[in-house]
């Protein structure tokens, strides 16, 4: 009988070690294998079970409050410090902020629906429930709902206008800054391409642009996403006309700034500059070719 290779998650490997620990050292290998197969519902080889149990200290000591249980492959983190910082931020800052907001909403008898895409980094294992067919995290006054796969760009208000508005305003500030720096140059031989704003300046601009984003822009994008009751969309045509007029003014301003840079044939159109190719690609499934390249560059994956 031949077996096809079965991928086991970290949580399943820990489960195998727990089964072996509970069964005790006197259990026969054949009997242990049957217990594991029955518990996991997967047909795996005894050599796989033996290999996992040899590393039982690793799997039993794994803290799933800091990572997901469904991880099946590992590769070295390119920026391990950043990865740890993001995990710490989520657990220590984001969760605390959500709980604080929930307390405030409870005091004012208000409710919030927070929409999030289904990126793996957004999952809170053990806290999710299924409501109306969606994975959700439900607090007393805040409901966090995760979008189904491959729907974010269609139904998320951020993706149907809010992000585009923020990017236009941010890049307008950026181009104005470049022109100001160019006017202040005293060395004609200085490479203009090396003039870059620092991270602090980018954060200041981002905060300024977000504060300046109007509530009408946000409301209109919620309506465009078609996830609100139809009755709420009564004035959407009027809102669209106002939004279109504002968009035209913003694009004209940005177009004038691009022209002022005198980039000639290298100049992008306003639309190209606002939406650079792959600029928003943050998380994506890795292809086999990319996985092989990572393995060659950073070393092979650990065994599953």
UniProtKB/TrEMBL annotation:
Annotated Pfam families: DDE_1
Protein name: DDE-1 domain-containing protein
UniProt domain DDE-1: residue ranges: 91-222
The organism's place on the tree of life at top rank: Eukaryota
């Amino acid at each position: 009988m031949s077996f096809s290779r079965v991928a086991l998650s970290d949580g399943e490997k820990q489960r195998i070690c727990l089964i072996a620990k509970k069964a005790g050292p006197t259990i026969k290998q054949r009997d242990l294998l049957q217990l594991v197969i029955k518990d996991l519902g997967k047909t795996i080889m005894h050599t796989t079970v033996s290999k996992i149990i040899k590393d039982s200290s690793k799997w039993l000591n794994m803290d799933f409050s800091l990572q997901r249980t469904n991880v099946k492959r590992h590769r070295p983190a390119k920026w391990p410090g950043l990865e740890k910082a993001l995990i710490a931020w989520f657990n220590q800052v984001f969760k605390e902020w959500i709980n604080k907001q929930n307390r405030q909403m409870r005091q004012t008898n208000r409710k919030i629906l927070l929409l999030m895409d289904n990126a793996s980094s957004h999952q809170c294992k053990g806290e999710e429930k299924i409501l109306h067919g969606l994975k959700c995290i439900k607090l007393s006054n805040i409901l966090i709902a995760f979008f189904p796969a491959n729907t974010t760009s269609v139904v998320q208000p951020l993706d149907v206008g809010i992000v585009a508005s923020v990017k236009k305003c941010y890049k307008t500030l950026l181009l104005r800054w470049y022109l100001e720096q160019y006017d202040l140059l005293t060395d004609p031989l200085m490479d203009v391409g090396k003039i870059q704003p620092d991270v602090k300046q980018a954060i200041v601009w981002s905060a300024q642009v977000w504060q300046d984003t109007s509530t009408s822009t946000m409301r209109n994008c919620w309506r465009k996403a078609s996830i609100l009751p139809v009755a709420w969309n009564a004035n959407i045509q009027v809102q669209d006309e106002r939004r279109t007029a504002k968009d035209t003014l913003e694009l004209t301003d940005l177009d004038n700034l691009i022209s002022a840079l005198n980039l000639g044939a290298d100049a992008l159109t306003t639309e190209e500059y606002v939406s650079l190719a792959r600029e928003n690609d943050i998380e994506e499934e890795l292809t086999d070719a990319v996985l092989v390249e990572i393995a060659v560059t950073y070393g092979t994956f650990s065994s599953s």
